[in-house]
């Protein structure tokens, strides 16, 4: 869930970009976003990927089953794009068309990711629990047509 939706109930195309980035990191790592156990603190997958990336240890995130069938360069590029998608500020995230270009064209220059959202599991829980109570009600009528 994108931070702008969790905290303010705002949803946009950039929220989808955020979700896509999380999905990419889950595929590359073989782990769920809430499934990382770190000895020093509880990190989300996004936070763990960000920490490894900043320390130049991005290869440690990669699921061992991918190493045999894909080049490390391709997988690291996927991690890089995933981190661009999960940046904290929606305006810093690429558009989906840019994401597709980044993945399809290996010569497409990748900007350096800025700070990612939800670095720790605690932040994710706190931010979503401090969100103001909002509700939305939508009514819809569905008419089904049957032939004679």
TrEMBL record:
<feature type="domain" description="Serine-threonine/tyrosine-protein kinase catalytic">
    <location>
        <begin position="1"/>
        <end position="102"/>
    </location>
</feature>
<dbReference type="InterPro" id="IPR001245">
    <property type="entry name" value="Ser-Thr/Tyr_kinase_cat_dom"/>
</dbReference>
<dbReference type="InterPro" id="IPR011009">
    <property type="entry name" value="Kinase-like_dom_sf"/>
</dbReference>
<dbReference type="Pfam" id="PF07714">
    <property type="entry name" value="PK_Tyr_Ser-Thr"/>
</dbReference>
<protein>
    <submittedName>
        <fullName>Receptor-like serine/threonine-protein kinase SD1-8 isoform X4</fullName>
    </submittedName>
</protein>
<feature type="region of interest" description="Disordered">
    <location>
        <begin position="127"/>
        <end position="148"/>
    </location>
</feature>
<dbReference type="GO" id="GO:0004672">
    <property type="term" value="F:protein kinase activity"/>
</dbReference>
């Amino acid at each position: 869930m994108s931070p702008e939706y969790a905290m303010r109930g705002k949803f946009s195309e950039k929220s989808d970009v955020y979700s896509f980035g999380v999905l990419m990191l889950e595929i590359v790592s073989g782990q769920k976003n809430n499934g990382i156990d770190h000895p020093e603190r509880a990190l989300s997958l996004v936070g763990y990927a960000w920490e490894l990336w900043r320390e130049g240890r991005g290869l440690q995130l990669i699921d061992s089953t991918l190493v045999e069938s894909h080049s490390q360069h391709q997988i690291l590029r996927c991690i890089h794009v995933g981190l661009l998608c999960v940046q904290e500020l929606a305006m810093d995230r690429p558009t989906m068309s840019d994401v597709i270009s980044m993945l399809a064209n290996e010569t497409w220059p990748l900007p350096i990711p800025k700070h990612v959202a939800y670095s720790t599991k605690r932040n994710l829980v706190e931010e979503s629990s401090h969100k103001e109570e909002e509700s939305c009600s939508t009514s819809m009528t569905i008419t089904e047509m049957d032939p004679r």
